[in-house]
Protein backbone atom coordinates (compact mmCIF):
# COMPACT_ATOMS: atom_id res chain seq x y z
CA UNK A 1 0.00 0.00 0.00
CA UNK A 2 1.13 3.53 -0.80
CA UNK A 3 0.39 6.16 1.85
CA UNK A 4 -0.43 9.67 0.64
CA UNK A 5 -0.15 11.69 3.86
CA UNK A 6 -1.88 14.87 2.76
CA UNK A 7 -4.86 12.87 1.44
CA UNK A 8 -4.94 10.76 4.58
CA UNK A 9 -5.33 7.71 2.33
CA UNK A 10 -3.42 4.59 1.40
CA UNK A 11 -3.63 3.35 -2.17
CA UNK A 12 -2.77 0.02 -3.78
CA UNK A 13 -0.55 0.00 -6.87
CA UNK A 14 -3.46 0.07 -9.36
CA UNK A 15 -5.29 2.84 -7.49
CA UNK A 16 -2.09 4.88 -7.27
CA UNK A 17 -1.46 4.60 -11.02
CA UNK A 18 -5.09 5.60 -11.66
CA UNK A 19 -4.72 8.55 -9.26
CA UNK A 20 -1.53 9.58 -11.10
CA UNK A 21 -3.29 9.56 -14.46
CA UNK A 22 -6.27 11.45 -13.02
CA UNK A 23 -3.94 14.23 -11.88
CA UNK A 24 -2.44 14.46 -15.37
CA UNK A 25 -5.97 14.57 -16.83
CA UNK A 26 -6.78 17.33 -14.35
CA UNK A 27 -4.15 19.46 -16.13
CA UNK A 28 -5.25 18.47 -19.62
CA UNK A 29 -8.96 18.97 -18.96
CA UNK A 30 -8.69 21.89 -16.55
CA UNK A 31 -6.76 23.97 -19.06
CA UNK A 32 -8.92 22.98 -22.02
CA UNK A 33 -5.87 21.38 -23.69
CA UNK A 34 -7.40 17.95 -24.16
CA UNK A 35 -9.92 19.11 -26.72
CA UNK A 36 -7.21 20.91 -28.70
CA UNK A 37 -4.59 18.13 -28.88
CA UNK A 38 -6.15 15.99 -31.61
CA UNK A 39 -3.94 15.79 -34.72
CA UNK A 40 -1.21 17.92 -33.11
CA UNK A 41 2.41 17.21 -32.26
CA UNK A 42 3.51 17.52 -28.63
CA UNK A 43 7.23 17.73 -27.98
CA UNK A 44 8.24 16.61 -24.50
CA UNK A 45 11.29 18.40 -23.13
CA UNK A 46 13.23 15.48 -21.69
CA UNK A 47 16.40 15.10 -19.66
CA UNK A 48 16.47 11.36 -18.97
CA UNK A 49 15.47 12.05 -15.35
CA UNK A 50 12.38 10.62 -13.64
CA UNK A 51 10.02 13.59 -14.08
CA UNK A 52 10.42 14.22 -17.79
CA UNK A 53 10.51 10.46 -18.43
CA UNK A 54 7.18 10.16 -16.58
CA UNK A 55 5.75 13.02 -18.63
CA UNK A 56 6.90 11.33 -21.82
CA UNK A 57 5.57 7.93 -20.74
CA UNK A 58 2.13 9.14 -19.76
CA UNK A 59 1.66 11.51 -22.70
CA UNK A 60 2.65 8.74 -25.06
CA UNK A 61 0.21 6.39 -23.37
CA UNK A 62 -2.66 8.88 -23.62
CA UNK A 63 -1.79 9.82 -27.22
CA UNK A 64 -3.56 6.78 -28.63
CA UNK A 65 -6.86 7.62 -26.96
CA UNK A 66 -6.68 11.32 -27.78
CA UNK A 67 -5.12 11.11 -31.23
CA UNK A 68 -2.02 13.28 -31.01
CA UNK A 69 1.67 12.68 -31.79
CA UNK A 70 4.54 12.73 -29.29
CA UNK A 71 8.26 13.39 -29.81
CA UNK A 72 11.03 13.88 -27.25
CA UNK A 73 13.60 16.65 -27.23
CA UNK A 74 16.88 16.58 -25.35
CA UNK A 75 19.18 19.58 -25.01
CA UNK A 76 22.66 18.28 -24.28
CA UNK A 77 24.22 20.94 -22.03
CA UNK A 78 27.65 19.32 -22.05
CA UNK A 79 27.91 18.30 -18.38
CA UNK A 80 30.48 15.52 -18.14
CA UNK A 81 29.79 12.63 -15.79
CA UNK A 82 26.08 13.43 -15.85
CA UNK A 83 24.65 14.15 -19.26
CA UNK A 84 26.01 11.11 -21.09
CA UNK A 85 24.50 8.71 -18.50
CA UNK A 86 21.07 10.35 -18.51
CA UNK A 87 21.06 10.60 -22.31
CA UNK A 88 21.75 6.89 -22.61
CA UNK A 89 18.75 6.06 -20.40
CA UNK A 90 16.57 8.45 -22.39
CA UNK A 91 17.54 6.90 -25.73
CA UNK A 92 16.59 3.47 -24.33
CA UNK A 93 13.23 4.82 -23.11
CA UNK A 94 12.45 6.43 -26.47
CA UNK A 95 13.22 3.16 -28.24
CA UNK A 96 10.97 1.28 -25.79
CA UNK A 97 8.10 3.74 -26.31
CA UNK A 98 8.63 4.10 -30.06
CA UNK A 99 9.11 7.87 -29.76
CA UNK A 100 11.33 9.97 -31.99
CA UNK A 101 14.13 11.70 -30.03
CA UNK A 102 15.57 15.02 -31.19
CA UNK A 103 18.98 15.77 -29.69
CA UNK A 104 20.31 19.32 -29.63
CA UNK A 105 23.82 20.34 -28.63
CA UNK A 106 24.15 23.48 -26.51
CA UNK A 107 27.79 23.82 -27.50
CA UNK A 108 26.89 23.81 -31.19
CA UNK A 109 23.94 26.17 -30.85
CA UNK A 110 25.07 28.61 -28.16
CA UNK A 111 28.85 28.23 -28.38
CA UNK A 112 29.43 26.95 -24.82
CA UNK A 113 28.86 23.95 -22.60
CA UNK A 114 27.56 24.33 -19.04
CA UNK A 115 30.87 22.84 -17.85
CA UNK A 116 32.60 25.87 -19.40
CA UNK A 117 30.06 28.22 -17.85
CA UNK A 118 30.63 26.62 -14.43
CA UNK A 119 34.37 27.07 -14.77
CA UNK A 120 33.98 30.76 -15.64
CA UNK A 121 31.70 31.19 -12.63
CA UNK A 122 34.11 29.37 -10.33
CA UNK A 123 36.98 31.59 -11.49
CA UNK A 124 34.93 34.70 -10.77
CA UNK A 125 34.74 35.73 -14.42
CA UNK A 126 30.99 35.21 -14.71
CA UNK A 127 28.50 36.30 -12.06
CA UNK A 128 25.73 34.00 -13.30
CA UNK A 129 25.51 30.52 -11.81
CA UNK A 130 25.43 27.48 -14.15
CA UNK A 131 21.69 26.85 -13.60
CA UNK A 132 20.79 30.43 -14.57
CA UNK A 133 22.52 30.06 -17.93
CA UNK A 134 21.41 26.46 -18.41
CA UNK A 135 17.73 27.25 -17.81
CA UNK A 136 17.62 30.22 -20.20
CA UNK A 137 19.53 28.42 -22.97
CA UNK A 138 17.51 25.23 -22.65
CA UNK A 139 14.13 26.99 -22.81
CA UNK A 140 15.36 29.02 -25.78
CA UNK A 141 16.57 25.96 -27.73
CA UNK A 142 13.50 23.92 -26.86
CA UNK A 143 11.26 26.57 -28.30
CA UNK A 144 13.31 26.90 -31.50
CA UNK A 145 13.51 23.15 -32.13
CA UNK A 146 9.92 22.41 -31.15
CA UNK A 147 8.87 25.04 -33.66
CA UNK A 148 11.18 23.64 -36.30
CA UNK A 149 9.60 20.18 -36.10
CA UNK A 150 6.11 21.66 -36.25
CA UNK A 151 5.06 21.07 -32.63
CA UNK A 152 2.00 22.91 -31.31
CA UNK A 153 2.87 22.31 -27.67
CA UNK A 154 5.88 21.65 -25.47
CA UNK A 155 5.35 19.53 -22.36
CA UNK A 156 7.79 19.66 -19.46
CA UNK A 157 8.36 17.42 -16.44
CA UNK A 158 7.84 20.10 -13.75
CA UNK A 159 6.12 18.61 -10.72
CA UNK A 160 4.31 20.17 -7.74
CA UNK A 161 7.56 20.49 -5.77
CA UNK A 162 9.19 22.42 -8.65
CA UNK A 163 6.16 24.71 -8.88
CA UNK A 164 6.20 25.52 -5.18
CA UNK A 165 9.97 26.20 -5.28
CA UNK A 166 9.53 28.50 -8.28
CA UNK A 167 6.68 30.28 -6.49
CA UNK A 168 8.87 31.01 -3.45
CA UNK A 169 11.76 32.06 -5.71
CA UNK A 170 9.47 34.50 -7.50
CA UNK A 171 8.29 35.91 -4.16
CA UNK A 172 11.91 36.39 -3.06
CA UNK A 173 12.65 38.18 -6.36
CA UNK A 174 9.43 40.19 -6.15
CA UNK A 175 8.53 38.92 -9.61
CA UNK A 176 4.74 39.16 -9.73
CA UNK A 177 4.64 38.82 -13.52
CA UNK A 178 6.18 35.35 -13.27
CA UNK A 179 3.82 34.31 -10.47
CA UNK A 180 0.88 35.07 -12.74
CA UNK A 181 2.49 33.44 -15.77
CA UNK A 182 3.65 30.15 -14.21
CA UNK A 183 0.58 27.91 -14.15
CA UNK A 184 -0.14 24.44 -15.57
CA UNK A 185 -0.01 26.09 -19.01
CA UNK A 186 2.23 29.03 -19.75
CA UNK A 187 2.07 31.66 -22.51
CA UNK A 188 -0.97 30.21 -24.26
CA UNK A 189 -0.99 32.38 -27.38
CA UNK A 190 2.13 34.44 -27.98
CA UNK A 191 3.36 34.37 -31.57
CA UNK A 192 6.67 32.54 -31.85
CA UNK A 193 6.49 31.14 -28.34
CA UNK A 194 5.08 27.64 -28.29
CA UNK A 195 2.69 27.06 -25.37
CA UNK A 196 4.20 24.93 -22.62
CA UNK A 197 2.25 22.70 -20.28
CA UNK A 198 3.15 20.65 -17.24
CA UNK A 199 1.39 17.28 -16.97
CA UNK A 200 2.82 16.64 -13.47
CA UNK A 201 1.76 20.04 -12.09
CA UNK A 202 -0.43 18.51 -9.35
CA UNK A 203 1.90 15.59 -8.54
CA UNK A 204 4.66 15.69 -5.94
CA UNK A 205 8.24 14.64 -6.51
CA UNK A 206 7.62 11.59 -4.30
CA UNK A 207 4.61 10.56 -6.38
CA UNK A 208 6.65 11.05 -9.52
CA UNK A 209 9.36 8.78 -8.16
CA UNK A 210 6.78 6.13 -7.26
CA UNK A 211 5.21 6.22 -10.71
CA UNK A 212 8.65 5.92 -12.27
CA UNK A 213 9.46 2.81 -10.24
CA UNK A 214 6.03 1.18 -10.61
CA UNK A 215 6.18 1.60 -14.40
CA UNK A 216 9.58 -0.10 -14.49
CA UNK A 217 11.33 2.98 -15.87
CA UNK A 218 15.07 3.33 -15.33
CA UNK A 219 17.62 6.08 -14.97
CA UNK A 220 21.08 6.17 -13.41
CA UNK A 221 20.90 8.08 -10.12
CA UNK A 222 23.51 10.67 -10.94
CA UNK A 223 22.82 14.27 -10.03
CA UNK A 224 23.92 17.33 -11.95
CA UNK A 225 27.10 18.53 -10.17
CA UNK A 226 25.89 22.16 -10.33
CA UNK A 227 22.40 21.67 -8.85
CA UNK A 228 23.67 22.35 -5.31
CA UNK A 229 24.78 25.87 -6.29
CA UNK A 230 21.25 27.03 -7.05
CA UNK A 231 18.72 28.77 -4.82
CA UNK A 232 16.24 26.08 -5.90
CA UNK A 233 18.33 23.42 -4.18
CA UNK A 234 18.29 25.27 -0.85
CA UNK A 235 14.56 25.87 -1.10
CA UNK A 236 13.96 22.23 -1.95
CA UNK A 237 15.71 21.11 1.25
CA UNK A 238 13.86 23.70 3.31
CA UNK A 239 10.38 22.92 1.90
CA UNK A 240 10.94 19.16 2.25
CA UNK A 241 11.77 19.67 5.89
CA UNK A 242 8.62 21.81 6.39
CA UNK A 243 6.55 19.13 4.67
CA UNK A 244 7.93 16.50 7.00
CA UNK A 245 6.96 18.50 10.08
CA UNK A 246 3.64 19.63 8.66
CA UNK A 247 2.30 17.30 5.95
CA UNK A 248 0.32 19.11 3.28
CA UNK A 249 2.56 22.22 3.28
CA UNK A 250 3.41 21.85 -0.42
CA UNK A 251 -0.23 21.47 -1.44
CA UNK A 252 -1.21 24.47 0.68
CA UNK A 253 1.53 26.56 -0.94
CA UNK A 254 0.33 25.53 -4.39
CA UNK A 255 -3.22 26.56 -3.46
CA UNK A 256 -1.96 29.94 -2.23
CA UNK A 257 -0.11 30.37 -5.51
CA UNK A 258 -3.21 29.50 -7.54
CA UNK A 259 -5.43 31.94 -5.71
CA UNK A 260 -2.75 34.66 -6.01
CA UNK A 261 -2.48 33.97 -9.75
CA UNK A 262 -6.21 34.48 -10.09
CA UNK A 263 -6.28 37.69 -8.07
CA UNK A 264 -3.10 39.19 -9.53
CA UNK A 265 -4.03 38.08 -13.05
CA UNK A 266 -6.87 40.59 -13.04
CA UNK A 267 -4.62 43.43 -11.95
CA UNK A 268 -1.27 42.79 -13.55
CA UNK A 269 -0.95 43.54 -17.21
CA UNK A 270 1.54 41.14 -18.75
CA UNK A 271 4.47 42.87 -20.43
CA UNK A 272 4.06 43.50 -24.14
CA UNK A 273 6.46 41.44 -26.20
CA UNK A 274 8.48 42.61 -29.18
CA UNK A 275 11.09 40.84 -31.31
CA UNK A 276 14.70 40.42 -30.20
CA UNK A 277 16.78 42.61 -32.49
CA UNK A 278 19.37 39.82 -32.84
CA UNK A 279 17.49 36.54 -33.17
CA UNK A 280 13.88 37.64 -33.71
CA UNK A 281 12.45 35.71 -30.76
CA UNK A 282 9.80 37.41 -28.61
CA UNK A 283 11.16 39.37 -25.67
CA UNK A 284 10.12 42.20 -23.39
CA UNK A 285 13.44 43.98 -24.01
CA UNK A 286 15.46 45.00 -27.09
CA UNK A 287 17.55 41.83 -26.89
CA UNK A 288 16.29 38.54 -25.47
CA UNK A 289 17.89 37.05 -22.35
CA UNK A 290 19.48 34.16 -24.30
CA UNK A 291 21.23 36.54 -26.75
CA UNK A 292 22.25 38.81 -23.87
CA UNK A 293 23.96 35.91 -22.03
CA UNK A 294 25.49 34.60 -25.26
CA UNK A 295 27.10 37.98 -25.96
CA UNK A 296 28.41 38.25 -22.40
CA UNK A 297 29.94 34.77 -22.61
CA UNK A 298 31.57 35.48 -25.98
CA UNK A 299 33.09 38.67 -24.56
CA UNK A 300 34.46 36.85 -21.48
CA UNK A 301 35.84 33.93 -23.49
CA UNK A 302 37.57 36.27 -25.99
CA UNK A 303 39.13 38.44 -23.25
S1 LIG B 1 21.09 20.51 -15.66
FE1 LIG B 1 21.29 22.68 -15.86
FE2 LIG B 1 19.70 21.42 -14.16
FE3 LIG B 1 22.36 21.10 -13.95
S2 LIG B 1 23.01 23.14 -14.53
FE4 LIG B 1 21.21 23.41 -13.25
S3 LIG B 1 19.57 23.59 -14.72
S4 LIG B 1 20.91 21.44 -12.29
S5 LIG B 1 17.69 20.61 -14.04
ZN1 LIG C 1 17.60 36.88 -29.11
Can you walk through the features of this model?
By secondary structure, the protein is an alpha/beta fold. A hairpin with a 4-residue loop joins strand 1 and strand 2 (9-11). It is built from twelve helices and ten strands. The model has no long low-confidence stretch (mean pLDDT 93). It has one domain (2-269): Rossmann fold, CATH 3.40.50.620. Bound molecules: Fe4 H S5 and zinc ion. The site of Fe4 H S5 has 10 residues, from helix 6.
What's a quick, concise take on this entry?
The protein is an alpha/beta fold and 303 residues long. It has twelve helices and ten strands.
Return the CATH topology.
Rossmann fold
Main β-sheet description:
6 strands, mixed
Share of helical residues: 40-55%
Architecture in CATH? 3-Layer(aba) Sandwich
Number of strands: 10
Which residue ranges are poorly predicted, with pLDDT under 50 across at least 5 consecutive positions?
none
Strand content: 5-15%
Termini separation: 60 Å
Computed structural class: alpha/beta
**Biggest sheet strand line-up:** 5-4-3-6-8-7
In the residues, how many domains can be counted? 1
